[in-house]
Amino acid sequence: MGQKFSCHKISEGKGVGQVIISKDEIMFYLVRPEDGVVIEKAHDLEGRSVAKKVIAFPGGKGSSVVQSDGLYQLLMKENQPAAMIIEHAETVLVAGAIIMEIPLVDKVDPAFYSAVKDGDRICVDASNGIIEILD
Amino acid sequence: MKLTQEQQDILEGKLGEGAALAIKVQIGIGECFDAPRMLPITNAHVALSNQESDLWFAEKMVGLGAKTRIPPTVNPGFCLSYFKERGMVTDEYADHMRRTHEAHKALGCRLTYNCTPYMDTNIPFPNEIIAFSESSATPYVNSVWGARTNRESAQSALCAAITGFVPEYGLLLEKNRKGNILVEVKAKMDSDFAFSMLGYMGKKIGPGIPVFVGLGDYVSPEAHRNLGAELNTSGAYGMYHIVGVTPEAPTLEAAFGGREPERRVVITDEDFETVLEREISDRGNRAIDFALFGCPHFSVKEVRYIAEMVKGKKLAVPLWIMTSALTKNTAEKMGLLDILREAGGDVVEDTCSDQPCWHFLKGKVGVTESPKCAYYPRKRGLEFVIRDLKTCVEAAMEGAVK
Q1: Residues facing B210 on adjacent strands
Q2: What CATH number is given for A4-133 in this structure?
Q3: Of residues B193, B184, B247, the one with CA closest to residue B211
Q4: Chain A: nearest CA to B7, how far in angstroms?
Q5: With contact defined as beta carbons under 8 Å apart, do A92 and A99 qualify?
Q6: In terms of CATH architecture, what is B281-401?
Q7: Which of chain B's residues have a Cβ under 8 Å away from the Cβ of A72?
Q8: ipTM, 2 decimals?
Q9: Of the candidates B85, B129, B167, B243, which lies 20 to 30 Å from B380 by C-alpha distance?
């Protein structure tokens, strides 16, 4: 059993995957649907793939339109994130995650951020408000 | 969240399955933000974008029998007749746009196809509770008109238009409308383009509600539009204050609600240059293939400005101005359309830069004055050099940019 941390459910569900940590906010439209690679210039995750991963990032940014299209396109190619962990909830990403049924949480126990390392396998159980670091 | 009998009825399907799904999504959003209840809205703007997710959701709603109770104005996709007539789109793209049109028509939307409704077709009253999506529209209606909306997504705004309600949280509440970041602008703010650059400082400004000082006592509608559009390209901002300009910021104290700023940021010319050259624009001093303006849609003043610059001259590359059908109509009556067409340019109504109708420009390099215009179509393989409007129009006449 790994370390467990509390969090607040935004979009229900449960997702397991390697965690990828971004210090920049994310606009999913500038993520390539075919492989989940971030193509935004000068972005913290530029060139890295978010496909099937748990993404920990500050929050969503950008257009109120194409954010959810980005998620939708990833979903169609089965390259959507396994779950998302954010610090600042904003309506656009929240609505997108709920409609696309991708687990999303915020208000995570601050201890999580000092314990987690990029690449750790983690489980986000949004419905029950628990994040677990598996290894 | 506590629902009224009417809202409970919607949830139970008395207005149909579509409205029930819409209110379910809204309850999910409301719970995320601890909204205690839902409030009625009297206006909405749906940022339809003719993207696949958009069409998927709108058609799903139509299929479930949904109809908007509060008919929203809508964003542009692309103008089917313009691009079809000229053979510029494939049947597949045309069919997609036709379906987007039919779905939103069936939902009873006001088919304005314009991303700047706050300039002429959908102007809310102060304190009016509304649901507005669209990058530049949300900050404009909150900050400039003093109406109240959260930064809705295209889909959540459509849900609100269908149910006629929004969850009460965030910017609907007086206490959440105060600024928390003091942004002292020392950069030279001599054009509407400078306001675009200021908006693109989201990374430096950080999350929250910025309060700008140092912008003088008049900010044009176009400058407000650019500021909001770029704030929501470089970040996510529901509103801003400009001390002495916007209605909820008569003084610095009022803008911050009497509290101290949590952050202080100074923006200089150097910040603009760094972001422009290193992050968002292609390198200058090169030949260009086209010029594209109107992201967000241009006002008739801007159409006139370009027409005056190109009057009696010939453009070296194609130039398009995207705007509303209303503005195009006005420009035509003013004789501006003839001037632009004689020079080799054109005005395109109902169209957005991030649409498949521009695919013929893939791999080409254009000029634009809008960082947002350069940002999104990157996914479609369009490249841009970003400069102020005057430099862009000169570049279109010369075929090369500084």
Answers
A1: B181
A2: 3.50.30.10
A3: B184
A4: 19
A5: no
A6: 2-Layer Sandwich (3.30)
A7: 51-53, 56
A8: 0.83
A9: B85
